[in-house]
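Proteins fold reproducibly. Take a tokenised chain:

. . .
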Amino acid sequence: MAVVRDLRVLLRFQGFRRLLGVRLLSQGADGVYQVALATYVVFSPEKQTSAASIASAMAVLLLPYSLVGPFAGVLLDRWRRRQVFLYGNLLRAALACVTAALILSDVPDRLFYASALAVTAVNRFVLAGLSASLPRVVDADRLVLANSLSPTAGTLAATAGGGLAFAVRLLVADSDAVVVLMGATLYLCAALAALRIAPELLGPEQKLGPPRLATALSGTARGLAAGLRHLAGNPRRRAAWALMAMTLMRFCYGALTVMVLMLCRYSWASGSDDGLALLGLAVGVSGAGFFVAAVVTPWAAGRLGPGRWIIVCAGAAAVLEPALCIPFTPTLMLLAAFVLGMTTQGAKIATDTIVQVSVDDGFRGRIFSVYDVLFNVAFVGAAAIAALMLPPDGQSVALVVTVALVYASIAAAIGRFELQ
């Protein structure tokens, strides 16, 4: 396979191998920790889970990416990146141990969420540092290849970590604290793996010295504002419309995710372990939809154009989502998870393409930072709206219909723009 051949070429670079090892261990730990957090919030027998608590957990998991992300690079240009991986993962290992202790203790939920928030905030620096370090460990001719394969490998590691967490929780130890400690162990392993990298190898270069921190942070904020103004220009309107569509589709996916969590917890299972197994299956089926989208979208978007492919994805979701969801049965909902995973990821790939083609190179990084903020804030906002609409058992026809109308509005709006 071409992917295997390309990976073999990259693995000849010692620095790349060691950096990839840090990424796999770090993101594998992320997958374990995030599943442990979700299962503790949703499936602990002693907790009466509500949609509001699920929304709070999603905010903890995603808001650091949105709020810290655009500014992480400012600090990464001032610190040795190898030290970020070392001390960042050591810090996360310690904080994860604190999270495990809080799970075992009778403490207010706000302390638990504060600990989890700290872990995920540090994660933004580690992920940004991994991407910034790639040009230091591969040559220019293979940089695009490394940028393609390394994040993909990290995503697979996070997925594998989540699967391991589900398996441990169901088969080995009926304790979320044990799963969190397993994540802490992987964070520690990632820190130790970072020690194999020379401290100066990953940069940054400090020959001229970085600008003052306050100047750099204010410059980042002005850069994001300039990116938004750039999007408003007529030649970039296509990218703006695509970003709007993807933000709303992410909103829909987030609202339905909260609904599925509540259904798994209260409507479909006689016990918490049964509900957890159903949730793991739903996550896997949705992931399969993401994979199919990655295979199908290049061909479909090539034939129809990225804009029209977004219309197809949104239109299919508008029709199939209420048909599959309103019966509120596990089998049809799993099919809906596959369809919505495929349509959401298909639209995202098309949106990425439109932004890359439509936006000037000098603004592309800033636009993708804005994209990242919109993507995660939409998911958290959807969880908050779902918390207001969902009954305790998770069965809400009103939410399903509302989401279907949003999907239909996306298809209609993008269709009208494409016909102009």
